[in-house]
Each structure stands twice: as structure tokens, then as C-alpha cells.
Amino acid sequence: MNATKALRQAAQHRTPLIHFIGKRSPPKAVDHAPHVHPASPTEALPDSFAAYRSNAQQHGPLKNTPPPPTSSMAYGAIGGHSGGSLGTVVPPKGQYFDRSELPARFQRTPWSQAEIDAIETGGASMFA
Question: Does pTM top 0.70 for this prediction?
Fold first, then answer.
């Protein structure tokens, strides 16, 4: 009970560290007209949402295109070709797909048995 009294008294004498300058007031005029985003690749807004959607892409084109006639895949053009027909995949010079392909100084260091024991015992084996 005494702790509650002390906290209440402390709260009464508390002064905030943030000081606001002036009264809050909304802006006099706000422009709600649509405008192009500054980072947009085009300088104009689309005429309609349908026109925008016809050219938009999200994980592939959004157009309602029928699947290729030779493909029997359920998703149309996605996965329509086998991986072998796409050719070999080789990283560019100086780039690697896996850390094990890097020079030895950049590869992962192997765990020592002491480190493994320390992890498995939660550190208790370090003091035993």
C-alpha cells in the first residue's frame, strides 16, 4: 500500500521532458488530388485501374493469357519448360552460390568437440 502512495506522489510532481511549441492546428488547405509518386518510372497517372492492371506484373504478367498449347501444366506458362531445357546455371565471375565454394579463409570454421559439448549442456560442461 505504501508503494502505491509513493508512486502517486511521484506522478503528481513529474514533468515531461518533451516540450511542444505552440498549439496543434491542422493545415489550412490540403490537396487531395491524385498525383504521381516521386519515384514512379512514369510521369503520368494511368487512365483507369483496368488500364494499369493490363500492364502490371506481379510474379509474372497479370493479363488473362491462355496457357501455351504445348504445356499441360496447371499454371500455364509458369513451369512450362523443364529445368534442363533452360541450360546450365553458372554464377558470374567473382560470385558464388554457396559459402562452401568460397576460398578457405571465408568458409565456415568447423565446430570443435568442446564447443559442441558446451552448447549441448547449456555451458555446464565448461565448468565441470
Answer: no
Nearest Cα residue to 78 out of 88, 68, 87, 69:
68
One-letter amino acid at 100 equals S
Alpha carbon separation from 123 to 111, 112, 113, 127 (Å, rounded): 15, 14, 13, 8
Q: Facing residues of 61 across strands? A: 57
Confidence bin at 115 (pLDDT 50/70/90): very high
What per-residue confidence (pLDDT) applies to 68? 55
Which amino acid would we find at residue 57? Q
Mind listing the pLDDT tens digit for each residue in 42-57?
888 888 888 777 777 7
Confidence of residue 116 (pLDDT cuts 50, 70, 90): very high
